[in-house]
Amino acid sequence: MMQEVIKSNAVIPPRPDAEELNPSGGVDFSKMERSLLRPRTFMSLLLSGIITAMTLFAMIPLFSVLGLLLWRGGRKLSIAALTQLPPAPLEQNGGFGNAILGTLVIVALAALISVPIGILSAIFLAQSKSDNRIASSVRFAGKVLTGFPSILAGVFAYGAVVTATGGYSAIAGAVALSILMLPTILLTAEDAIRMVPSGMKKAAIGMGVTGVMLAIARGAGETAPLLFTSLFSNFWLIWHGNVKLMHPTASLAVLIYNFAGMPFANQVELAWAAALVLVLMVLTANLIGQSLSRKQVGSGQRAD
Questions:
Q1: Nearest Cα residue to 222 out of 188, 256, 269, 183
Q2: CATH number of 97-303, picked from 1.10.8.60, 1.50.10.10, 3.30.1490.190, 1.10.3720.10
Q3: Which stretches of the chain are assigned E, i.e. beta strand?
Q4: pTM of the model
């Protein structure tokens, strides 16, 4: 009986009318149409056009270089150029197969040195408190190394490795490149880990792969450090199953530097072809890094 009295005395809220159910019911859409007569719309279109034009203008040098490389380097590019040894000054044909192998070995050794140190240091910095003096010192050193001249890295590796071992080598070149690759890996991975929630730390570590690939791309294109450390060689790094890591090693960057200034047309054409191969290698590394980063982010989101 009491329940029936309570139900009869209950206040029933009024039903909302049609305008309340439709949030945009009282909006005059005719006033929201874009018109060039409105100052805000005109400025938006003008600034968008300027930004688009500046973006296209900034891309002109990039596509110009790529087009020139495809035109000049593509004519000399062949299986023989990718597999043969560099020619003598007056010799025709030849290739830069040993330089491709040397570049891959030196960059791989540099990554083997810098990637574990960079990723582990990034995890430490991301998990450290803001008042941690050690973390602050490491972060400051990493930022300083980002502007470190590459030739000084080569001089350091020359004094630390070449002088100590008594000769130029792939190991010395890898040490020089690892110094240049380390700050990129460290700072990029730290930012990736720090900017996401704790539930997506694994995905953030995967995003740090992009920084690793950027560092590898930078290391592959460096010339000055290798001139002081690995120098150059006209022979294969691997011969009859023996890997000569403690001997002078060829690389694409140094080959381009040497051949581009020669007065022989064959060497100059090989330099263009080697530059095209180097650009393709760097582009491939960046694409792989971005692909791995997207996969890690997707798997992290599914886990959440």
A1: 256
A2: 1.10.3720.10
A3: 238-239, 242-243
A4: 0.78
Residue 243: strand pairing partners: 238
**What was the pLDDT predicted at 272?**
94
Euclidean distance between the first and the last CA atom of the chain, given in angstroms as a whole number:
51
Q: How many residues does the chain have?
A: 304
Question: CA 25 to CA 206: how far, in whole Å?
Answer: 47
Residues 189-223 as b or e (16 or more Cβ within 10 Å = b): bbbbbeebeeebbebbbbbbbbbbbbbbbbbbbbb
What's the token pair of residue 94? 């030849």
DSSP 200: G
DSSP state of 222: -
Domain extents for the chain? 97-303
Residue 35: its H or E element: none
Q: Tell me the pLDDT tens digit for each residue of 274-283.
A: 999 999 988 8
